[in-house]
Amino acid sequence: MHPQVSVVLQTLTERAIEDFRIEFYQGIKNRNHEVNLAHHLLIKIDQYLPSDTYDTDLEYNRMNSTNVKVNPRLPGTRVRPDILLHKRGIQTDNRLVIEMKRVGWGH
């Protein structure tokens, strides 16, 4: 991926996260379930990204496998992320992996 595209994706994702934090503050404060919050964040990310760039998935589970996507920063490891920005069907084209955890909930 071209470095400028990476910067654009990062900027758009950061804007989506900030919008999510503002719009869903009450849900975060009220301790809504992690999957519900991830779903709403995914919607925000989708609103910022052009639809023809990457796919976004929630709790991505490729062909019902427990070992889902290769983590490019840690060769040999696999992750099952809460939110994944990637190209479906291409194992090595992951652009963003988000794992959501709430502090103080035993995670």
Task: Walk me through the topology.
Blueprint: H1 3-23, H2 25-29, H3 34-48, E1 55-58, E2 69-70, E3 78-79, E4 83-86, E5 94-98
Antiparallel strand pairs: 1-4, 2-3, 4-5
Top keywords for this entry?
single chain, 107 residues, alpha+beta, 3-stranded antiparallel β-sheet, two-stranded antiparallel ribbon, 5 strands
Summarize the structure.
With 107 residues, the protein is an alpha+beta fold. Helices cover 38% and strands 16% of the residues. Strand 4 (83-86) and strand 5 form a beta hairpin.
What does this structure look like?
- The chain has one domain (3-98).
- The protein has 3 helices and 5 strands, in the order H-H-H-E-E-E-E-E.
- Helix 1 (3-23) packs across helix 3.
- A 3-stranded antiparallel sheet has the order 1-4-5. A two-stranded antiparallel ribbon has the order 2-3.
- It is α+β, with helices and mostly antiparallel strands and 107 residues long.
- The model has no long low-confidence stretch (mean pLDDT 77).
Element-by-element helix/strand order: HHHEEEEE
Share of helix, binned: 25-40%
Span from first to last CA?
33 Å
Extract low-pLDDT stretches: none
Order of adjacent strands in the largest pleated sheet:
1-4-5
Extended strand count: 5
What Rg do the Cα atoms give?
Answer: 14 Å
Query: What average pLDDT do the residues reach?
Result: 77
- Quickly count the domains: 1
Largest sheet: 3 strands, antiparallel
Net shape = globular
